[in-house]
Design goal:
- This protein has 328 residues and is α/β, with parallel strands linked by helices.
- It has helices spanning 18-29, 48-58, 73-78, 80-100, 138-158, 184-198, 218-230, 248-259, 283-286, 296-314, and strands at 10-13, 35-36, 62-65, 105-109, 161-167, 169-171, 202-206, 212-213, 215-217, 236-240, 246-247, 264-268, 277-278.
- The strands form 4 sheets. Strands 2-1-3-4-5-10 form a 6-stranded parallel sheet, sandwiched between helices. A 3-stranded mixed sheet has the order 11-8-13. Strands 6-9 form a two-stranded parallel sheet.
- The protein binds guanosine-5'-diphosphate.
- Guanosine-5'-diphosphate (GDP) binds at residues 72-74, 113, 137, 169, 182-184, 187-188, 205-207, 211, 213, 248, 271-275.
- The site of guanosine-5'-diphosphate has 22 residues, from α3, α6 and β7.
Length: 328
């Protein structure tokens, strides 16, 4: 297997999404200059033939598979068919296309929702497939589990070195701010900002506020992905997170502080809570020497700054969080 060098040909699938774009930034900062990226108009990853032809022609030394259909609790719960189909088709096209093209190494990005809903906390990698999944995101989780098993089976049968990372809830630049399809943190940032502008002094939070979630800044996630590539991690499942969680009510307060919204919180209990808790055990990656470095309060402040900047850049034509196939 060829060692990874600064001149290695690295394909980042999903480079326009939040995670893919963070991986591209991280690789460029580290001096990797031979990046293969393709816009969706040039390469449709849901098209098996196009994807296989691209990979056979380019034969990357390494692939980050960050392309996926992702979204928050409501999008997962309502667009169930899209979530299972698009994710299955993208990952089978890229992973199988990579194998056929002789690509030896790949990093597949999943999500912490692959683990059973009620599993012990913090969640260790070996808890995979030990119990029923959270119903609101079961189709997405099943697709991601299939991707993990595809990597595992190909490694055994064909000797590839395809590893998998499972990030906790991510946030940061390039996130989706559409309130119907976004995750909680971008939704709260947008709602808090709009509430401040409207002078309403209230933040509307879905559910009871009691579920616990672990949040990781996407630049930390990208750093973990590049760390794995550089350490030549050849296979297996790796949780990526901070190892700490907060309640949704607590994160709502942190967002209000960052945005400068003074007032109260109303809980809309007609909306689902989802999994009560999903805190990852991050000791596998920690034992290799990686840990997150961006503190949550600081990360929220930075992300609010990015949000304001992207609004200002786009001026009145700002399309917050237009839905797209993007990274988890
Ligand atoms: P999950 O981690 O897969 O459940 O996905 P989300 O990030 O969408 O939601 C996390 C938690 O935040 C759930 O308990 C939601 O009900 C809660 N939540 C509170 N307010 C919001 C909101 O405005 N949008 C979203 N997406 N979730 C919210």
């Amino acid at each position: 297997m060829r060692p990874i060098e600064r001149s290695s040909r690295i394909y980042v699938a999903g480079h326009r999404g939040m995670v893919g774009s963070a991986i591209v930034r991280c690789l460029r900062r580290a001096g990797y200059h031979n990046l293969l990226i393709r816009d969706r108009s040039d390469l449709d990853l849901t098209d098996q033939r196009q994807t296989a032809a691209f990979l056979a022609q380019e034969r990357p030394d390494y692939i980050f598979l960050a392309a996926a259909k992702v979204g928050g609790i409501q999008a997962n719960n309502t667009q169930r068919g899209d979530f299972i189909y698009q994710n299955l088709v993208i990952e089978t096209n890229v992973i199988n296309g990579a194998r056929l093209a002789g690509v030896e190494r790949l990093l597949f990005l999943g999500s912490s929702c692959i683990y059973p809903r009620d599993c012990a906390q913090p969640i260790r990698e070996e808890y995979l497939l030990t119990g029923p999944l959270e119903p609101t995101n079961e189709p997405y989780a099943i697709a991601k589990i299939a991707g993990i098993k595809l990597c595992e089976a190909y490694n055994r049968q064909f000797g590839t070195a395809y590893a998998c990372v499972m990030p906790t809830n991510l946030y940061g630049p390039n996130d989706n701010y559409d309130l119907n399809s976004s995750h909680v943190l971008p939704a709260l940032i947008r709602k808090a900002h709009e509430s401040k502008l409207a002078g309403s002094g209230r933040l509307e939070v879905w559910g009871s506020g009691s579920p616990r979630r672990e949040f990781l800044h996407v630049d930390d996630m990208a750093d973990a992905c590049v760390f794995m590539m550089e350490r030549a991690v050849a296979e297996g499942l790796y949780n990526v997170g901070t190892g700490e969680d907060v309640t949704i009510a607590e994160v709502a307060r942190m967002v209000m502080d960052a945005v400068g919204l003074k007032g109260g919180i109303s809980f809309d209990t007609s909306k689902p809570d989802g999994t009560p808790r999903k805190l990852l055990d991050v000791s596998r990656l920690a034992s290799m020497g990686w840990k997150a470095s961006i503190d949550l309060a600081e990360g929220i402040r930075l992300t609010y700054g990015d949000y304001l900047e992207s609004r200002a850049l786009a001026g009145s034509g700002f399309q917050a969080g237009s839905e797209q196939v993007r990274t988890p």
